[in-house]
Amino acid sequence: MRVIGVGDNVVDKYMYKRIMYPGGNALNFSVYAKQLGVEASYLGVFGDDKAANHIIHTLNDLEIDISHCRQHSGENGFAAVDLVDGDRVFIGGNDGGVQNSHPIILTQEDLNYIQTFELAHSSIYSGMEGELHKLKETGIRVSFDFSTDYNESVLNEICPHVDISLLSCGQLQTNEIKDLLTLVCSLGSSMAIGTMGSRGAMVFNGTNFFEQKPHYVKPVDTLGPGDSFFTAFILEYLKGSPPATYCSVYS
Fold it and tell me: What is the overall mean pLDDT for the chain?
């Protein structure tokens, strides 16, 4: 199995510790997949500052292929982070840095490369809305993380080009989540996943709902668990395990 993250990368700057860590949804997907034993690559846009060099060095150490990435003069994307009782709080950032002025435009060479993977993953923070149809047209599966930044207009634009949609739904009631996941599948996605914070997660495959209760822990830092959850879930799904093998049917 080979998977690729296409889209955003940042450094998360923990201001009170004066330490920065590589992050970003598409980048995290590639890293977590690699850590789970799957061959993974990343395609994105880097700046030329210390933050970018830190990310590139880390990806090289992890042996994640970045041969199709772009690098431009300017500031890499970053998010300023604080922790409040173990919960991450974003307190600033530069809205993607050079990714804004140099968005990803997929070339035929890129698409030939991406076509060699089983799944390409992107996100709402990647500026890829206009390029998703190209990913879909390669014939591989496409997954997409909407986070909490979605409305009906956004879903109408993106879902027809996405096979597996992930949405953060902790702010919604259960019946609202079911309605949302049903809508997402009706718009074109074959599977919709809603993470519900401390309530766990729900999956809709167009026919049945499945629910997974959480394993409760006291969090040290809540930055990144959604990305790690999705990566582990989707890799198991791609291996051929249906949701019913690790979730309970929800009525």
Answer: 92
